[in-house]
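Following up on my earlier message about iron/sulfur cluster. Here are the inputs again, as you asked, copied directly from the submission form:
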Amino acid sequence: MTTTSNGVIELTKHREDYLAEHAVSGLKALGFYLHIPFCVRKCNYCDFVSFPGQGQDIIDSYVDRLCGDIGAAGKQYGKDYHVDTFFLGGGTPSLLTPAQLGRVLKAVNEAFLCGCEFAAQCGAGLGKCDGLEVTLESNPGTFDKDKLREYISLGINRLSMGVQSLDDGVLKRLGRIHDSEMALKAMRTAKALDLNYNVDLMLGIPGQTLAIWEDTLKRVLAEEPKHVSFYSLQLEMGTPFYRDFKDGRLTLPEWSENRAMYHRTLEILREAGYKHYEISNAALPGYECKHNLKYWTMQDYLGLGMAAHSFLGGRRCFTTSDLKEYLAGHAVPEWEETDEYSLKTDFVFTELRLIDGFSKQTYQTMFGSDFEDDFAPAYQKLLKEGLMEEQNGFVRLTASGLDQTNPVMEALLNV
Ligand SMILES: C[S@@+](CC[C@H](N)C(=O)[O-])C[C@H]1O[C@@H](n2cnc3c(N)ncnc32)[C@H](O)[C@@H]1O
Ligand code: SF4
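Thanks, got it. Here's what our run produced:
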């Protein structure tokens, strides 16, 4: 790509052209993320921005502030975009009462046209459009059938549930607020209400053997979730797990055992009819998470609430992680300077998470240059080492590349 004095503008224009091609009725599609930073208790491994044990008054104030931000965003972006995926993440959004959730969703519905690509023609709206994906993240210890029924009536049509494990010893070690029985009950409740649901699981946990993991996965699949996420435990700085590991009080399964769990996961999921479509995600055909796919394919998304990230028109933005600052209304979204290089590496890193990888043609269309040229010689080296491969114009990680994502990404960064 020729870098001119206005290189970034040229790059953004390529991207805008690409997105415009996919827009219907002149409105571009937007993924909408709302961060709900509250949990009953902090789990021993988690460093997501969330605050345990907050009272209803704080949560109410947060919802007030959020609704204000949604209205302001609608004035700024509502004329250009329609919302076609919506994700309430956390923290634990299922801590919201139906009344609080209702206020948030009403604010979005008033500020933005919500619905699939035909929303402009039919008027659609939250709860009325089947093409609109509305996900709420939940903890099994925080809802029952009545609450879920009310959520559904407000427009929630996908539930993501943090089950993590069905082994009570493992759940205790993780510091979860629920046991395996509550997790099973939560899955059955969602199923009884015919709700599309995802189950989050974690592997590579202290004290978890391959047999324990396999038992969890098989029992979860028996409940027929449409989607399964299987995250390998990351030791995050500042968490009790991190401290205990450093002090020698916590032992992780060997890396070979971690990988055995991962490989067995892929076999079991395949046999059960799930498609492995992202490093840590699999779904029954047609049930891939549309919202998360926007992150992995660099589509536009707007994140509101504290500690939320946005990617709009080729630029990234984030908001404060300070609850007091946010509640006081002092949170000013901070826009990051993006340059050609960072957008290209972001594209490659996020799209390589997808099992099908990315099309070299899409890269060319978005950036006006060739992937092989931009990432030579690292790409050729990774091809030779069998960590990446190319097929029908698509570039992707091989099976051994999926086991060694860090070295692959480091090699691509050092071009
Ligand atoms: C925001 S939480 C999900 C919802 C809810 N708060 C819960 O935990 O039940 C998102 C998911 O990230 C995963 N996760 C969190 N911390 C992790 C870590 N350190 N390593 C791997 N996965 C992690 C868990 O599977 C968790 O369910
Ligand atoms: S894993 Fe979920 S419930 Fe546990 S602290 Fe993190 S966000 Fe909260």
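One observation from looking it over: Residues 45-46, 48, 89-90, 92, 137, 139, 162, 164, 200, 202, 231, 233-234, 236 surround S-adenosylmethionine (ligand 1) (CB under 6 Å). Hope that helps, and feel free to reply on this thread.
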